[in-house]
Amino acid sequence: MVLNAIALVNKTVSGDGRQDRQIALTVDHIVDHFFKIRNRILLYTCDSTDGRQLTREKLFNGWYVKSSLNKRISKLDSSLEGDVVIKSSILFDRENDLGAANITRCFYEVQAILEESKME
Fold first, then answer.
1. Cα–Cα distance between 118 and 83 in angstroms, integer?
2. How far out from the chain centre does Cα 27 lie?
3. Contact between 86 and 53 (Cβ < 8 Å)
């Protein structure tokens, strides 16, 4: 399989802490557009440089639960604990040709390898 596109969103300035109601709608549109090609898998991590990764994780979880996209898009979560807690997730279309079971297995295998590697 060839990975033909990587999109990186890097927010370098923190907001003012107020919740913008348009953000969930914007995320919905971005994710919906991304999965126009159903065999894509989206991996994201919650930035931990300012210690607010748990808040970001909570916001993304809330978006997913409320989004109508959760009927066709699956979400798997990962947490790597160490000096810094790294929260990451993948999103994938349930009709992905790789199959939900294979994607899930691979995601958790990678997580296990990362957990093992930090013990070395």
1. 11
2. 12
3. yes
Report if pTM > 0.85: no
Q: What is the largest CA-CA distance in the chain?
A: 44
pLDDT at 4 over 90: no
Q: 95 pLDDT exceeds 90?
A: yes
End-to-end CA distance of the chain: 31
- CA distances to 17, 37, 40 from 3, rounded to whole Å, are 35, 13, 9
Tokens describing residue 48:
């931990």
Cα–Cα distances (Å) from 16 to 19, 20, 24, 27, 118, in that order, read: 9, 10, 17, 19, 35
Give the whole-angstrom CA distance, residue 71 versus residue 74.
8
- ∠55-58-60 over CA atoms, to 5°? 110
